Amino acid sequence: MESRDVEKPIALSFFSGAMGLDNGIERAGIDIKLACENDRACQNTISENKPNLPLISDINEYSPRQIREAAGLGEKDDIDLIVGGPPCQAFSTAGKRQSFVDTRGNVFLTFIHRIIALQPKYAIIENVRGLLSAPLVHRPHSERGKGYPPLNEDEAKGGALLHVLSLLRNEGYACSFNLYNAANFGSPQKRERVIIVCGRNGKKPPHLMPTHSEDGSFELPKWRTFQDAVKGLPKDGHSHINFPEKRLRYYRLLKPGQYWRNLPLELQKEAMGGSYGSGGGKTGFFRRLAWDKPSPTLVTHPAMPATDLAHPEEDRPLSVQEYKRIQEFPDEWKITGNIIEQYKQIGNAVPVSLGLAAGKLVKSLLKEESIPKVKNFPYSRYENTSEETWERMIGNKHVQPSLLEMHQ
Which alpha helices (DSSP H) does 221-283 contain, by range? Predict the structure, then answer.
């Protein structure tokens, strides 16, 4: 393949969404040559902000050759980076965990096969924490336990990721990954995402370089806060949905950083209703953000009872403008569609700082620069989330050839 100037590396973006990840990649000095997105609202957002960027839709409908043509690349042009976050609902711990049986899971595999066919120097794959434990084949919980055979290799935890890694490694790619908290990279949000970095040269890439730490350790500045995020944002002109009046009654009793357990004892059960006696921490109920901490993970709707995201002081959910600041979109970045579509697009995005960290890593690898390591850094609140510790925990289970052939 013909090499390009590493000072101006190029990237192709898939499952681009509202382009949070891509904004970070571009800030690192990498030129996005193509976006691929199937959601109409996100397509409109991409076209609004990047009218000259080639945009294709369903990845299943484009062959590797057609992708190159759409990006204005010839058959021998080298691609420095392919980046994308395939739909994650199939792997979400909150979903039904259908894994690769799910259509969205198959789109994930299509993405892997496009990477293999297009042979970029590097690939970045972003996904939710559930990918670390998703099986290759999901067996319904109603068919487990007494009276049913034990789970087989394909149904065991981690099979989906092992399958993806085996496909890439069989083609010579070396892969590293971890579960990264975006707050450790300068985002004013505690959002954890799996980032897999794959190198065509067979050398395992290092982990992303953190820029912040929770308590200022590792000689890094402390996490950025919600107050940092919204600094300078005008108080007027916010677009937001509203809480029902019956819930506002309780919000008016809460201070910044408080939630339902901070209500007077006699009102807690009344406010929570049937959820009062259910399990779990229930920290998302009647939750006001704290000024002096990062935001919790943004969700696609800020007024769902179990995942409330209320302003620290005002009696309303976070606004679209505050959502954008937390995800680090530029103020001038336009999110199209109705207000629910706007919340959804921003809530599904990757924080720009996390994209920037990934882009900087790839840029340094392309330039063959020395990359320091931060020993024992707590990238997330969970253990065994790096490729080394995860694979030791999961065990190297071999994927059956029949399953490999199934997804060719």
Answer: 226-230, 245-251, 265-272
